[in-house]
Amino acid sequence: MNTSHNKSKNKIYFVSDFHFGSPDGKSSIEREKQAVCWLENIEDSAEEIYLLGDIFDFWFEYKYVVPKGYVRFLGKLAQMSDAGCKIHFFCGNHDLWQRDYFEKELGFILHRKPLRFEKDGKQFFVGHGDGLDKSDTKYKILNAIFKNKICIKLFASLHPRWALAIGTHWSKQSRHSHHKSDYQDRGQNEPMYQYCIQSLQSQHTDFFIFGHRHLCCDKELKNHCRYINTGQWREKKPFAEWDGENLTLKNFDQAEEIH
Fold first, then answer.
1. Which domain holds residue 133?
2. 208 - beta bridge partners?
3. What is d(CA 184, CA 173) in angstroms, rounded to the nearest whole number?
4. Residues 144, 36: Cα–Cα separation, whole Å
5. Among 27, 121, 28, 105, which Cα is nearest to 65's?
6. Which of 26-40, 127-141, 187-201 bottoms out in mean pLDDT, i.e. has the lowest?
7. For the chain, how many structural domains are there in total?
8. What CATH number is attached to the domain comprising 203?
9. Is 170 in a helix, a strand, or coil?
10. pTM tops 0.85
11. For 150-189, how does the pLDDT look when each residue is reduced to its tens digit (9 = 90+)?
């Protein structure tokens, strides 16, 4: 065993909101190729990768059927998983209907809720980030419907040809319903920022890392605790990197920052 090679695999990477499948097949494949290029760049240093939700713009998994496509991205992750890299997949609000395909076939670790863990003496709290705004009544109602077992079974009774077409259309409509103002930074009034502040009152956390907002940011909370959002992978291709001492928000377009 090459122990020197294993020792170099000591970094953790966080990324979210690729939204593969959106807005069309051509641009999605191009974005997928860029994501694979990023994975190839971090492959030699990645001990773990946290995919923080909405990796797919829509995903509904049947017992024996999964959506077609995304083979470049999933194949690369499977290769890295086979080589010992831990791949954590968090369900987002666009790709929450998972069964066991990722776990059994690709070796992923599936998370349906946010995760708290300790690494190198630091406390991390990570997840997609949806549902943290307790005042969002519309989201609460939709989330209850989407996670209802009866509703899921009824939807699964549809032929995949129709179910996936309906789901993809809904996902696009959901995205188009948002205004640009929905993605503007609200400063300390950001629901996720407020969630972090309130959480710190009861439990210390060094790093809160979420996606969902499509708003890339790195904000100090208090006592050197930080809230980081990995944004969406469309323009600057943001991700966060933990090297054992420092957590850094980076852009893949800035190749000189990739080691």
1. 3-257
2. 125, 227
3. 20
4. 34
5. 105
6. 127-141
7. 1
8. 3.60.21.10
9. helix
10. yes
11. 998 999 999 988 988 898 888 777 766 665 656 677 778 8
